Amino acid sequence: MTINTDPKKIEEAITRSIDKIYPNKDVFDQLLKSGKQLRIYMGIDPTATYVHLGHATNYIILKRLHDLGHKIVVLIGDFTAMIGDPSDKNAARQRLTKEDVQENLRTFKEQIGKILDFNNKENPIEIRFNSDWLAKLTFEDSIGLASHFTVQQMIERDNFQKRIKDNKPLYVHEFFYPLMQGYDSVALDADVEIGGTDQTFNMLAGRTLLKAYKNKEKIVVTTTLLENPVTGEKLMSKSLGTGIGLDETPTNMFGKTMAIPDEAVVQCFIDCTYLSMDEISKLEESLKNGLNPRDVKMQLAKEIVKMYHGTDAADKAEEYFVTAFQKKEIPDDLQEIKIETEIKLSDLLLEQGSVKSKSDFRRLIDERAISWANGDKISDPNFVLTQAGVLKIGKKKFLKITIKK
After folding, report:
1. Quick one: pLDDT at residue 16?
2. How far is CA 254 from CA 37, 159, 183, 233, 312, in A?
3. Amino acid 133: pLDDT
């Protein structure tokens, strides 16, 4: 396999969206320029059914390194997901069952396949599951792993200290998580591990174990987290149920991107798109010179939708957003319907006169002419209303659904 050692491409790979490199940037730079194929991996626990833009940052970095010719391993933490990562958490995570994990994995490869080339035959990307080795560890093995760390090291983590101070439970099984993730590096014989800054402790545990078990050095690369630079709040979080999923519809993805805080737009261009840093610098300068952040956000939204759904879908999503929101196609004086309990949409529309008959309703469903205001189509003729929102029926009729409390 020919390894690309272009200094400019390497510089982008080790600086863009990168927070820190252990032991240091120079060591990683020299390895990438050596011409040796490195074994690079990133792990993700399937704790939700969707992959969001925050995760995508890491997969984009993996793509850059794969394009340089390095061996990429996507590690699925199907075993560790059943333990629960305590990183950056003020309470113990809910432990998942095997069934939960399998359900969450159902469309996982399809989602990240929008970034990584799983069809590459010359340098195939591996997908591994850490249950292949972690489920086989004996109690003796686990004690051996634990012997490389102290209790003081484990509880020095800020979130653990906070829980101790607040008298919140700190469970023993949570100490096992970094041991398990650390052992992944040993099992994979990794040269490099990539992950968010919230994974630093766990990844450095892997560095410790790889040195102990194989006398091998591992590079740890921590990547920037998508955060609001003013409030410090995460923009994307599976555990909080926030963020923009790669499986979102184009209109949903566009609309959610437009809702990102103005101050986070430049960082989103850096972390979530393929736009060059020169182009991003020009956009940043334009913002400083008075360009409306909304216009830059429109570019960001279109760029992101294009990456995951293609140019045509991006154009249509932009057109929908401009028509429905900027030009206020949705009227201010919406007809409002209050519902007390769950009700079939067909019955509701027939009852209040929006459709003439159930066959008329079925025709609209078949023509995909009933949707939520964000563009999500309703295709089930037996759809039951359980949430509030704005419905669009046909081309011009809008109904505001509210729930009586």
Report:
1. 96
2. 38, 34, 40, 21, 13
3. 97
Q: Does domain 7-223 have CATH number 3.40.50.2000?
A: no
Q: Tell me the β-bridge partners of 40.
A: 72, 192
The tokens for 116 are: 């990584």
What's the CATH code, domain 250-326?
A: 1.10.240.10
Q: Are 50 and 83 in contact (CB under 8 A)?
A: no
pLDDT of residue 84: 67
Residue 404 and residue 358 in contact, taking contact as beta carbons nearer than 8 Å = no
Nearest partner of 195 among 185, 187, 208, 209, judged by Cα: 185
pLDDT score, position 266: 93
Q: Would you tell me how many other CB atoms lie within 10 Å of the CB of residue 246?
A: 25
In a 13 Å sphere around the CA of 313, the CA atoms on its Cβ side amount to: 17
Which residues lie closer than 8 Å to 100 by C-beta, 6 or more apart?
Answer: 81
**What are the tens digits of pLDDT across the range 272-299?**
999 999 999 999 999 998 888 889 999 9
Cβ distance 29 to 14 under 8 Å? yes
Q: Domain 335-403 falls in which CATH fold?
A: 3.10.290
Contacts of 200 (CB under 8 A, 6+ apart): 20, 220, 222
Domain borders along the chain are 7-223, 250-326, 335-403
Query: E strands of 140-268, at which residues?
Result: 192-196, 219-223
